[in-house]
Write the structure tokens for this entry.
Amino acid sequence: MTHVKAQQKQRAQQVQRAQLFQRGERMENYWKVQEVAAALQISVQTVYRYVANDEIPFHKINRAIRFKPSEIESWIESKAAGVPPLVMIENQNGNSNESVMLNAQTEGSEV
């Protein structure tokens, strides 16, 4: 990267940080993917899948994916309040190692 491009990139990052600070937000308040995975006790891959499917609130800062802890907490509460129970079924070949979890409400069956 040339010196001029490096300076431009650094300036853009400074402007973005200043904008966040003006809105009362600080970079330190954001979690990384690994921190969300640890907090939710799920894999990093699952967090990325949630992001790709817009299933979890996130922010893109430059190219980095970041999460506000307060938004994650609200998301967890909303999921806990509205998620129907999961049902474990065996695959058609009867192999219990290939069990599938289905949402009972989605399937239209009663638990």
Notes: Residues 84-91, 95-111 have pLDDT under 50 and may be disordered. Helices lie at 3-22, 33-40, 44-52, 69-82, 104-107. The CA atoms of residues 19 and 25 lie 9 Å apart.
